[in-house]
């Protein structure tokens, strides 16, 4: 384990309240290109609610060079304290005292991007989860909440902008060309919400007046050359602020709200109080540089971070096991915001697609863990799709069970009862119970147990009695460390369709107040509907009201019927997906030579296209084939090549058989005039580009010309990237010139170059891996920038199953080479990258052997980071 010592397991059951509290922290940063110093002055006191009396004070601190330690004004003797690799221990401290420390840190050498680091010409911070301990000694845990006052000093010319949390207090000049600024945050907060930025930045500015009439100054800071790409983020912020007032009654609470875009950032963004720091990818957009998906991502991430001001900052987590308390709830809030801003069913489909493809896979593999884990080695490894997306589903189910009005009462109660506190998942659920009078003790299983519940449904129609019954049976699979789980409380929304596709009125024999909502609580349960005049087609799990795998033995005809008629947009999509999956997997399993598409499939395709004008975005979702990795998850072992071949074959067959229709719709959807960003325009582009992909797969000469023309027109980045991705897959003679043209246009724009790396890394061509190897030494690539790593190496491993899972193991060896290099640079990113091997047990024997060999190579490496060690260990243990 090298310098990180033996990895310890941290357990929820070991939680104890902090033995000390910190009332105030005054920090002073003396920022230098070399020799940055941090002065800290804190008022500490014994915590009256601590469970035991401590004879020492242990403060966290890593990679700090001590300069000076003073207690109540006097320098501390060497026998009163001890410093080790992970912190500072004070022996026999008084009950209440002032601790002053001074340390030197080296942000210029910080490639981990945790704590204080340099990004280009900037100083910036990232403290969640445990980065603050790399800035100064502190009780680095979220239940220690203190008032922060921050003074920053730096060279005036190079760092004209000095930002921290809270409100700006004063600023002024200092000798030697330096200057300072003081920030005060009136809200007590945990140190993971601390932030600092210093640099030469421009900003855009707006004023927002809150519902109660307070004026807030909003600013987005970025490098000068990107100042024309901030408008969308600013408009998204204003929409999010208004939405939180209307939907949750939550107002902003400081005089200023600042966002800073930085290029080197481990994740999407960070909700630091009053000073959100963003990966530039989630701020900057212009029609010629950003796709529609980028625009939507920015809107969602800006909203997510803003919403944290209440769900995360005003009310925070007691400990990191409660991470989903803030993340699950905040993801639920940003999902609902996006649904209100655009198309609700399309948003739901996109979210469920992510959930099924990634969270269901995580829940079924070696890294499975509950929404609230009960142990971990490295908390950074628990920022997972389970904590975030399943956590959001668990909040969504509670909203569904309570209904909109009661859910609002419950969240009002939560905000009132716990404002200013560090709380637990139980505290949240208790508010749901108290506001509704319901018992949610069984519902808590969703937080406690890992694994995706499987719900099997059968039906029975009794013509004589005009009764219709649905029988449900649920089962929660075993997961690492958890067996024989009790039944869950599962809300399942249902509808019944008559032969014309109209909704049948629902009359429940049990008199349920909401007859469309079935609440499962038992392993087996039957629900009976009365006065049903004909055998209906059931529409089950409408809107995906629970994160479960639902199985009902639909005939193909019933699925075609649902895909065409269900009033629930989500279930229309789901029916189409099930059909496509069936058709593809049947041919993969049969190992057919010539891929075919049944006539009724083409008919459904045609019918959906003809009605696409009503909602082109939804049509685009419905007509898209399930992804290769999702299809792979449905097989055991997954047939990597078979799936690719059949899926491509289906695309080609649709492209050929429907060519005239696809061409006509392509031209009708194409817009050459002004670029618009409304939901309809986005939907039209999505559908048009999907049709282009089918046409190109069909192989016609017209399609190829269309694709090249769409690239060359350079009308907007969505269209350019759609065409470029198809070019990158192709063997067309123009391929090289077009990729070169793109790189020449955008070589100075790192975010656009990321797209160029990704399309090449995801190309189906057999020479992709050697191409990716070459791109590692491209001048725009760097292992030190997480966006570059994700765009090239991440895109190859996660977005190119065919080439990543090469039967000779070359894809895995490539990944592990990079992971091992990266571990010394940025362990968080290295550990996340290795997770691309987490489904290795689902491969055939040959591939498993290669994967195992590579995982063992990781674990055998001396000096591994805690992050990477934990992931490699869990993948191999399974
Ligand atoms: C939307 O959650 C959804 C999820 C932690 C970092 C941002 O606000 C955050 C931070 C990770 C993974 C996903 C997201 C974030 C982080 C994220 C961002 C926007 N508290 Br790690
Ligand atoms: Zn978050």
Sum up the structure in keywords.
878 residues, 8-stranded mixed beta sheet, 27 helices, 41% helix, binds ligand 7MF, binds zinc ion
Structure description:
This protein is of the alpha+beta class and 878 residues long. It is 41% helix and 21% strand. An eight-stranded mixed β-sheet has the order 6-5-9-3-2-12-15-14, with no helix packed on it. Strands 17-18-19-21-20 form a five-stranded mixed β-sheet, covered by helices on one side. The longest helix is centred in the middle third of the chain and has 22 residues, at 569-590. The mean pLDDT is 97. Zinc ion binds next to helix 3.
Element layout with pairings:
Elements: E1 10-11, E2 20-30, E3 36-46, E4 56-60, E5 65-71, E6 74-75, E7 81-84, E8 87-91, E9 96-105, E10 115-119, E11 122-126, E12 146-155, E13 161-164, E14 167-174, E15 178-189, E16 196-199, E17 202-209, E18 215-222, H1 231-248, E19 256-262, E20 269-270, E21 275-279, H2 292-307, E22 316-317, H3 323-341, H4 344-363, E23 375-376, H5 385-402, H6 404-418, E24 422-423, H7 425-436, H8 445-448, E25 454-462, E26 467-475, E27 490-497, E28 517-520, E29 524-529, E30 537-540, E31 549-552, H9 556-565, H10 569-590, H11 599-610, H12 616-623, H13 628-633, H14 640-657, H15 659-669, H16 679-698, H17 701-713, H18 717-729, H19 735-746, H20 750-761, H21 768-775, H22 786-799, H23 801-804, H24 810-825, H25 827-834, H26 845-860, H27 866-877
Helix pairs in contact: 1-2, 2-3, 3-4, 3-5, 4-5, 4-10, 5-6, 6-7, 9-10, 10-12, 10-14, 12-16, 14-16, 15-16, 16-17, 16-18, 17-18, 19-20, 20-22, 24-25, 24-26, 25-27, 26-27
The structure holds ligand 7MF and zinc ion.
Residues 304, 308, 327, 330 line the site of zinc ion.
């Amino acid at each position: 384990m090298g310098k990180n010592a033996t990895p310890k397991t941290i357990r929820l059951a070991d939680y104890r309240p902090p033995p000390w509290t910190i009332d105030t922290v005054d920090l002073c940063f003396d920022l230098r290109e070399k020799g940055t110093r941090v002065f800290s002055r804190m008022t500490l006191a014994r915590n009256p609610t601590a469970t035991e009396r401590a004879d020492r004070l242990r403060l966290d601190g890593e990679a700090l060079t001590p300069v000076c330690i003073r207690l109540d004004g006097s320098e501390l003797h060497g026998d009163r304290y001890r410093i080790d690799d992970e912190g500072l221990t004070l022996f026999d401290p008084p009950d209440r005292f002032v601790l002053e420390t001074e340390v030197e840190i080296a942000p210029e050498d910080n490639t981990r991007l945790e704590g204080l680091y340099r990004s280009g010409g900037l100083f910036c911070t990232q403290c969640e989860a445990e980065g603050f301990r790399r800035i100064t000694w502190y009780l680095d845990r979220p239940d220690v909440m203190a008032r922060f006052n921050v003074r920053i000093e730096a060279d005036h010319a190079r760092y004209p902008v000095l930002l921290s949390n809270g409100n700006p207090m004063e600023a002024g000049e200092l000798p030697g060309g330096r200057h300072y600024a003081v920030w005060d945050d009136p809200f007590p907060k945990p140190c993971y919400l601390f932030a600092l930025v210093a640099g030469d930045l421009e900003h855009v500015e707006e004023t927002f007046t809150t519902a109660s009439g307070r004026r807030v100054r909003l600013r987005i800071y970025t490098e000068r050359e990107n100042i024309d790409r901030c408008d969308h983020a600013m408009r998204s912020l204003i929409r999010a602020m208004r939405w939180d007032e209307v939907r949750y009654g939550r107002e902003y609470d400081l005089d200023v709200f600042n966002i800073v875009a930085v290029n080197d950032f481990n994740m999407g963004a960070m909700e630091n109080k009053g000073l959100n720091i963003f990966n530039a990818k989630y701020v900057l957009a212009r029609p010629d540089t950003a796709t529609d998906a980028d625009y939507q991502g920015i809107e969602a991430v800006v909203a997510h971070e803003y919403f944290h001001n209440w769900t995360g900052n005003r009310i925070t987590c007691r400990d990191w096991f409660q991470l989903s308390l803030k993340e699950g709830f905040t993801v639920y809030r940003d999902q609902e915001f996006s649904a209100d801003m655009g198309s609700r069913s399309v948003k739901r489909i996109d979210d469920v697609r992510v959930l099924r493809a990634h969270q269901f896979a995580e829940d079924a593999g070696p890294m499975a863990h509950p929404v609230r884990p009960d142990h971990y080695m490295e908390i950074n490894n628990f920022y997972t799709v389970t904590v975030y997306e399943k956590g959001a589903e668990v909040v969504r189910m509670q909203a569904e069970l309570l209904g909109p009005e009661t859910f609002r009462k419950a969240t009002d109660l939560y905000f009132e009862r716990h404002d200013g506190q560090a709380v637990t998942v139980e505290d949240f659920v208790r508010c749901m119970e108290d506001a509704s009078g319901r018992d949610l003790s069984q519902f808590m299983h969703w937080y406690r147990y890992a694994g995706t519940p499987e719900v099997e449904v059968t039906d029975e129609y009794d013509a004589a009695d005009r009764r219709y019954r649905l029988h449900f049976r649920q089962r929660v699979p075993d997961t690492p460390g958890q067996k024989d789980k009790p039944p869950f409380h599962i809300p399942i929304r249902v509808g019944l369709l008559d032969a014309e596709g109209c909704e049948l009125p629902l009359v429940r024999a049990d008199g349920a107040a909401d007859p469309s909502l079935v609440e499962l609580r038992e392993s087996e349960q039957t629900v009976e509907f009365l006065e049903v005049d004909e055998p209906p087609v059931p529409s089950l799990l409408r809107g995906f009201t629970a994160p479960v795998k639902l199985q009902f033995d639909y005939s193909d005809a019933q699925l075609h019927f649902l895909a065409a008629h269900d009033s629930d947009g989500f279930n229309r999509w789901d029916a189409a997906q099930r059909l496509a999956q069936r058709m593809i997997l049947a041919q993969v399993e049969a190992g057919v030579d010539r891929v075919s598409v049944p006539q009724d499939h083409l008919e459904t395709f045609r019918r959906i296209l003809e009605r696409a004008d009503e909602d082109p975005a939804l049509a685009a979702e419905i007509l898209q084939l399930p992804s290769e990795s999702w299809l792979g998850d449905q097989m055991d072992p997954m047939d990597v090549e078979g799936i690719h071949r059949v899926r491509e074959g289906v695309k080609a067959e649709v492209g050929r058989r429907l060519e005239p229709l696809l061409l006509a719709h392509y031209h009708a959807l194409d817009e050459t005039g002004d670029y618009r960003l409304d939901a309809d325009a986005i939907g039209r582009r999505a559908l048009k580009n999907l049709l282009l992909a089918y046409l190109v797969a069909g192989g016609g000469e017209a399609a190829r010309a269309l694709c090249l023309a769409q690239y060359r027109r350079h009308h907007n980045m969505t269209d350019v990237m759609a065409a470029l991705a198809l070019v990158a897959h192709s063997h067309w003679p123009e391929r090289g010139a077009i990729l070169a043209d793109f790189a020449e246009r955008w070589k100075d724009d790192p975010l656009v170059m990321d797209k160029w790396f990704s399309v090449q890394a995801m190309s189906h061509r057999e020479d992709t891996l050697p191409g990716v190897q070459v791109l590692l030494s491209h001048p725009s690539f760097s292992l030190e920038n997480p966006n570059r790593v994700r765009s090239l190496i991440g895109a190859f491993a996660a977005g190119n199953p065919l080439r990543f899972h090469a039967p000779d193991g070359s894809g895995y060896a490539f990944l592990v080479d990079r992971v091992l290099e990266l571990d010394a640079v940025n362990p968080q990113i290295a550990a996340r990258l290795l997770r691309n091997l987490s489904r290795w047990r689902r491969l055939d024997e040959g591939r498993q052997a290669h994967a195992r060999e590579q995982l063992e190579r990781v674990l055998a490496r001396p000096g591994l980071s805690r992050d990477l060690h934990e992931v490699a260990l869990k993948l191999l243990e399974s």
